[in-house]
């Protein structure tokens, strides 16, 4: 989450808690994704949060960028030889313009040609150092409402697209006789069963997994990170909690998780609203739940 002060008077505090349709990826980098967060992120309430939050984005906030601190007293790393410039200034400025537009999610707002022209008028004024053409305290709430409506319309469009894709996908999946459908709507396919008991919801599991969208694109993979994930089974999305109980240690399973058992209409970075998710999971280990602490005599 990025938070920034909007002015020196302290009258407006800007917080980006959830921009909805802000660009999810930058130059091919993927945001950190963890299954340990099954619920929607908290929605922070702040004055003009949507609009001013978008405007507050800066280069230092780019996703996937590593921040290195120069700590006094520590030996500085040897400076790399400056690379020979490969681009002209006009190319760099053009790319910066693309960067700004991508970061604030202009494509997702689906502005008309007329709206883009008006947007560029405002942008040109800001680039020239001019003051805001209107009083921000007065226009801010209306501007925020307008942007939220634009975002809501885009998200609704994504959701409708996902719903149509889900129906077609699950209709086709019925042809696969190896796939089992549960009353909850979860579908799964045992690749190899493993051996021993299945994990219980309160137990901790260690897994390798790869998560994909219906288009085949990977949104997260512990295999690619070469780092298995560990979590308590009842602390993840419902599709995982239910599905991994069908498996034993050493086994592999393919989960077809409909949106109501995953991230629903909220989605996640890299996961559109209403998405069905496909997971390939290998259950590496099961750790028993910690025993409850013994009761202290006389304690209430």
Helix content: 25-40%
Low-confidence stretches: 1-34, 36-49, 55-74
Tell me the number of helical segments per DSSP (H or I, 4 or more residues long).
7
The domain tally reads 2
- Rounded radius of gyration (Å): 24 Å
Total number of β-strand segments? Answer: 9
* Major sheet attributes: 7 strands, antiparallel
- From the N-terminal CA to the C-terminal CA, the straight-line distance is 41 Å
- Strand content is 15-25%
Helix/strand/pairing category: alpha+beta
Helix and strand run:
EEHHHHHEEEEHEHEE
What would the principal axes of the Cα set say about the shape?
Answer: elongated
Mean of all residue-level pLDDT scores: 78
In short:
With 300 residues, this protein is of the alpha+beta class. 30% of the residues lie in helices and 17% in strands. The two termini are 41 Å apart.
């Amino acid at each position: 989450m990025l938070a920034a002060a909007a002015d020196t008077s302290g009258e407006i505090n800007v917080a980006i808690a959830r921009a909805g349709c802000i660009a999810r990826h930058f130059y091919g980098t993927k945001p950190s994704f963890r299954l340990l967060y099954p619920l929607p992120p908290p929605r922070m309430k702040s004055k003009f949060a949507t609009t001013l939050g978008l405007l507050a984005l800066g280069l230092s906030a780019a996703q996937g960028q590593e921040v290195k601190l120069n700590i006094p007293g520590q030996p500085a790393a040897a400076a790399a030889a400056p690379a020979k410039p490969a681009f002209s200034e006009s190319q760099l400025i053009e790319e910066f313009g693309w960067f700004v537009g991508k970061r604030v999610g202009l494509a997702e707002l689906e502005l008309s040609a007329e709206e883009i022209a008006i947007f560029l008028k405002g942008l040109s004024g800001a680039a020239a150092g001019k003051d805001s053409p209107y009083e921000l305290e007065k226009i801010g709430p209306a501007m925020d409402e307008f942007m939220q409506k634009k975002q809501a319309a885009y998200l609704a469009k994504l959701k409708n697209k996902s719903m149509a894709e889900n129906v077609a996908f699950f209709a086709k999946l019925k042809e696969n006789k190896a796939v089992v459908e549960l009353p909850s709507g979860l579908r799964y396919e045992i690749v190899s069963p493993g051996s021993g008991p299945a994990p219980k919801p309160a137990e901790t599991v260690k897994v390798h997994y790869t998560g994909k969208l219906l288009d085949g694109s990977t949104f997260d993979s512990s295999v690619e990170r070469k780092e298995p994930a560990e979590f308590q089974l009842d602390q993840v999305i419902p599709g995982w909690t239910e599905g991994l109980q069908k498996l034993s240690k050493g086994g592999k399973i393919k989960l077809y998780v409909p949106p109501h058992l995953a991230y629903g209409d909220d989605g996640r970075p890299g996961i559109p609203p209403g998405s069905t998710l496909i997971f390939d999971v290998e259950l590496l280990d099961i750790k028993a739940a910690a025993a409850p602490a013994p009761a202290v005599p006389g304690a209430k």
